[in-house]
Amino acid sequence: MTIHAWKIKGKGGSDHDIKSYEFFIKNHCVSCGWSFPNVPGREKINTFEDYKEFWNKQIKGHHWNSKWGYQSVHQLFENVRKGDFIWVRCNGIYYVAEIPDKPKDLFHFDVGEIASNFDCSAMLTDINWMPVGKEDAVPGSVSTYTHNRRAITKVDNHETPLETSQYTATSYYSAILLNKTDLLPPKMIHTRSSLFNLIGYAAAEDLVALWLYDQFNYVVIPSTNKIGTQRYEFVLVDASKNKVPIKTEEFIFK
């Protein structure tokens, strides 16, 4: 069974404007919303099955066009597996954690005011988040993957497991960050395909630019994102034909 890596937005509420990720980090948990604040009967939820039954009853009672199998709570509680890794960004810093047990066994429904306000009543507990850093320290598969509608997404869905392994490049990198270096020989992560799974689009473009200069002496001048800029990605300049001597002393401020 393949061990996967997931990314969760951590923004709750009907308008997705609640910073749930702050609650995640502080309280060692993770949630995908659907807290049903102020709805009678929620205080009787003790198990995952109680919650699923309550969820379907509320959806049906409000005549909402939502189905359990298409919701992020379904992904979190029924598709995420023990041993998978999950990522979240909180105030510009990325965090990673391992799912330590079956999600249904980690399920907890907190009817308290604070959890409700953060839209985190239905949660997985015992999630030990480790700070990783900003985008430069994070796999591109995590930092560049976005999905406007889903609260949680499997970011390595298109990655094949590493040779003789159940880990994808992203999940193995996640394991290394959490000091699980005994999973595979370190050389397994340095395959060509794994490299491009772990870097983002911008980093890939930088590598191509360096390769063009190294192999063909082409300098890549990228476009900018200014409104008035012409729509092109970049300009290639043949450095061998455009060499201009520069006297550095003319550019020194006195």
Number of E strands: 12
Question: Biggest sheet, in brief?
Answer: 5 strands, mixed
Roughly what fraction of the amino acids lie in strands? 15-25%
Low-pLDDT sequence parts: none
- List the secondary-structure elements in sequence, H or E: EEEHEHHEEHEHEEHEHHHEE
DSSP helical segment count: 9
Strand order of the largest sheet: 9-6-5-1-10
The helix content, as a percent range, equals 25-40%
| Overall morphology | elongated
Provide an overview of this structure:
This protein has about 250 residues and is α+β, with helices and mostly antiparallel strands. It is about 30% helix and about 20% strand. It contains nine helices and twelve strands. It has helices spanning about 20-25, 50-60, 70-80, 105, 115, 140-145, 170-175, 190-200, 200-215, and strands spanning about 5-10, 10, 20, 30, 85-90, 95-100, 105-110, 120-125, 130-135, 150-155, 220, 235-240. The strands form four sheets. A five-stranded mixed sheet has the order 9-6-5-1-10, with helices on both faces. The longest helix has 16 residues, at about 200-215.
